[in-house]
């Protein structure tokens, strides 16, 4: 084994792993060398040619955050052996789940061939729900590291991220991670990269981010292969605001990429979107902790504080410029589009104020969440929130509980539908006959509807061919239409399906993992709206509609869903003194019915004999009394019944 001066000594476990892989004679010690790091650098005067902006993109759990940790350690940005992992993942939910939810930046310095280079690293999420974070990050980069697991190979999100970077004309450095694993098969994965992306095996770097193998080569490839930013420091200041968060002491902080010129503390800047002006109070670089600077120049990524007291003023995608030198807006990026909607209500009505404050604070740091006030007669006043996906919803609710100590009721998720109404005087007056709805309670009457459209997604599934049959059957059950099937190698297939969003939003991913023993991966992208036969299903309790229990379903599944709903309600609604008929109806037609029997007092218990007519008379009086009670009584459905039903997704 080669021992180089300045490198850390290998642990016994690492030596054992190296010997097992037969790589001991070829590997150098892991990754920290003071000779290659520079502590004090004049950031303002570093030439543009010595700046690199790049992101790490990959599928979930392929080692992005671990690679980011090793890059920070190798360049001396953080100390080794501190026991901290996922340094850039700062949220508690990120550390618990082992996933990246929010993209994080860090500016690191590396000395290469006697010159200091500034490497602006952005660690991005890998789950499809947070693809908007990836897209936003790529808008300020000139290249990416495409990280692929040497054991699992190319996955669905790997394909999506590759084409996202390829579409932005970014330089791509392919890297195979986890080569230290016993099951790793780099040759097979390189063959997949060649078949899918036309990447040659000789261009693929092989590393182990966990053990620090090959980190030096990655950094040198970043410097040699990635282009420097195409910026001009002599033009007026112009910067792209691509992320923001809220600090309770300094207000809204803006993460900016400087496209031209420079700005210093004390300058007056203006927003192209809001037209408001601010004075720059603080400027800093993230290394990864904040490092204050007096001036920031073109090509750099920095954090700007200017006393924005409202996060809504920090519009992601906005362009900032010096007030005295106005410039045009930079080409931005598409704002995140909410795909999944759910109602959120306080578990206890007395906690409404606390929940409202918690939602406001979280949405300050997560601009992708949309909030509308909603009211339910059963659950009280609440909110209708829009999320990027089901994982985004789960993370948001987990943060509500962990960071703010609030308990909320989350209704079953739904999606947005497009309804085209028949032409009437009212629609002509409004100027449009198309409406978007995500709440079944506002679904129009069927006599007013001309067409209904549902959101579609283009789903990509990568699976071993042994599970191909069950997966195709699952997609057909979810009303999917196959678009493409490509053999990645001898063992794996990539499928593409047009799928309704409402069919995959709840349990599709779990079902896919179950039938494929966890080997299949799934990714999707928005594919617009498609004409569909949608109906509103109403739940009637003794012929009285219950708005909170209504739902929107496809007509082909209406009877099945209706049967499941009434069976569930029969279990949840408590028996009462009157007979209750639970019915599921569509357009006035009853599709399913269940009866809840009433409590019944034994009025004949006191009889000890005599003619049977005495018994019949008492039973007739009881029946007449119950009939009269049924005519005037209101069915009392407890709040907990609504909670249990709305949180249950068995019928979706």
Automatic annotation (TrEMBL):
Topological relation to the membrane, as annotated: Peripheral membrane protein
Record flagged with keyword Nucleotide-binding: yes
PROSITE patterns: G_TR_1, G_TR_2
Residues the entry annotates as binding GTP: 58-65, 123-127, 177-180
Enzyme class: hydrolase
InterPro entries referenced in this protein's UniProt entry, alphabetically: EF-4 (IPR006297), EFG_III/V (IPR035647), EFG_V-like (IPR000640), G_TR_CS (IPR031157), LepA_C_sf (IPR038363), LepA_CTD (IPR013842), LepA_IV (IPR035654), P-loop_NTPase (IPR027417)
Location of this chain's protein in the cell: Mitochondrion inner membrane
Span of domain Tr-type G: 49-230
Catalytic activity from the UniProt record: GTP + H2O = GDP + phosphate + H(+)
Entry EC no(s): 3.6.5.n1
Superkingdom field: Eukaryota
PANTHER family: TRANSLATION FACTOR GUF1, MITOCHONDRIAL, TRANSLATION FACTOR GUF1-RELATED
Function field: Promotes mitochondrial protein synthesis. May act as a fidelity factor of the translation reaction, by catalyzing a one-codon backward translocation of tRNAs on improperly translocated ribosomes. Binds to mitochondrial ribosomes in a GTP-dependent manner.
Family of the protein in this entry: Belongs to the GTP-binding elongation factor family. LepA subfamily.
NCBIfam families: lepA (TIGR01393), small_GTP (TIGR00231)
Descriptive protein name: Translation factor GUF1 homolog, mitochondrial
Species of origin: Cryptolaemus montrouzieri
């Amino acid at each position: 084994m080669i021992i180089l001066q300045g490198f850390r000594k290998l642990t016994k476990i690492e030596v054992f792993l190296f010997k097992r892989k037969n790589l001991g004679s070829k590997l150098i010690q892991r990754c920290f060398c003071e000779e290659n790091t520079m502590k004090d650098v004049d950031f303002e005067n570093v030439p543009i040619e010595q700046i690199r902006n790049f992101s790490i993109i990959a599928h979930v759990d392929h080692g992005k955050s671990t690679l980011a940790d090793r890059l920070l350690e190798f360049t001396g940005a953080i100390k080794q052996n501190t026991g901290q992992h996922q340094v850039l993942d700062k949220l508690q939910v990120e550390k618990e789940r082992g996933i990246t939810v929010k993209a994080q930046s860090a500016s690191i310095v590396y000395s290469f061939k006697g010159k200091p280079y500034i490497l602006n690293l952005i660690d991005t999420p890998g789950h499809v729900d947070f693809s908007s974070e990836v897209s936003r990050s790529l808008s300020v980069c000139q290249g990416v590291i495409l990280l692929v697991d040497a054991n699992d190979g190319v996955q669905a999100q790997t394909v999506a991220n590759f084409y996202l970077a390829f579409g932005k004309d970014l330089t791509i450095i392919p890297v195979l991670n986890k080569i230290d694993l016993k099951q790793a098969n780099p040759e097979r994965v390189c063959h997949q990269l060649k078949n899918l992306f036309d990447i040659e095996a000789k261009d693929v770097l092989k590393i182990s981010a966990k053990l620090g193998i090959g980190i030096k080569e990655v950094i040198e490839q970043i410097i040699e292969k990635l282009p420097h930013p195409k910026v001009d420091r002599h033009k007026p200041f112009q910067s792209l605001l691509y992320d923001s968060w809220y600090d309770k002491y300094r207000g809204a902080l803006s993460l900016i990429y400087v496209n031209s010129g420079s700005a210093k503390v004390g300058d007056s800047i203006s927003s192209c979107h809001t037209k408001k002006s601010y004075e720059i109070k603080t400027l800093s670089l993230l290394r990864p902790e904040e490092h204050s600077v007096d001036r920031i120049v073109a090509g750099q990524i920095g954090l700007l504080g200017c006393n924005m007291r409202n996060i809504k003023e920090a519009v992601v995608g906005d362009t900032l410029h010096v007030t005295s030198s106005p410039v045009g807006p930079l080409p931005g990026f598409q704002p995140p589009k909410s795909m999944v909607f759910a109602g959120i209500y306080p578990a206890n009505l007395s906690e409404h104020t606390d929940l409202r404050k918690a939602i406001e604070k979280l949405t300050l740091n997560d601009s992708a969440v949309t909030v509308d006030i909603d009211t339910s007669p059963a659950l009280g006043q609440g909110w209708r929130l829009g999320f990027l996906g089901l994982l985004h919803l789960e993370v948001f609710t987990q943060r509500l509980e962990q960071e703010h100590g609030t308990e909320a009721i989350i209704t079953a998720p739904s999606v947005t539908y497009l309804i085209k109404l028949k032409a009437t005087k009212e629609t002509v007056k409004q100027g449009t006959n198309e409406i978007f709805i995500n709440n079944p309670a506002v679904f129009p009457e069927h006599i007013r509807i001309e067409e209904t459209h549902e959101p579609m997604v283009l789903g990509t599934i990568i699976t071993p061919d042994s599970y191909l049959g069950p997966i195709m059957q699952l997609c057909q059950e979810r009303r999917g239409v196959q678009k493409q099937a490509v053999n990645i190698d001898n063992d794996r297939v990539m499928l593409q399906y047009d799928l309704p969003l409402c069919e995959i939003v709840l349990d599709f991913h779990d079902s896919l993992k179950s039938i494929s023993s966890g080997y299949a991966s799934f990714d999707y992208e928005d594919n617009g709206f498609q004409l569909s036969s949608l109906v509103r299903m109403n739940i009637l309790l003794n012929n009285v509609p219950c708005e909170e229990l209504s739902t929107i379903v496809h007509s082909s599944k209406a009877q099945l869903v209706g049967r499941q709903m009434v069976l569930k309600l029969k279990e949840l609604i408590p028996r009462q003194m009157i007979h209750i008929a639970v019915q599921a109806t569509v357009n006035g037609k009853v599709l399913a019915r269940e009866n809840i029997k009433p409590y019944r007092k034994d009025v004949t218990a006191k009889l000890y004999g005599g003619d049977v007519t005495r018994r019949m008379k008492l039973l007739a009086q009881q029946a007449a009394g119950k009939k009269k009670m049924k005519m005037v009584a209101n069915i009392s459905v407890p709040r907990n019944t609504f909670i249990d039903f709305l949180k249950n997704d068995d019928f979706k």
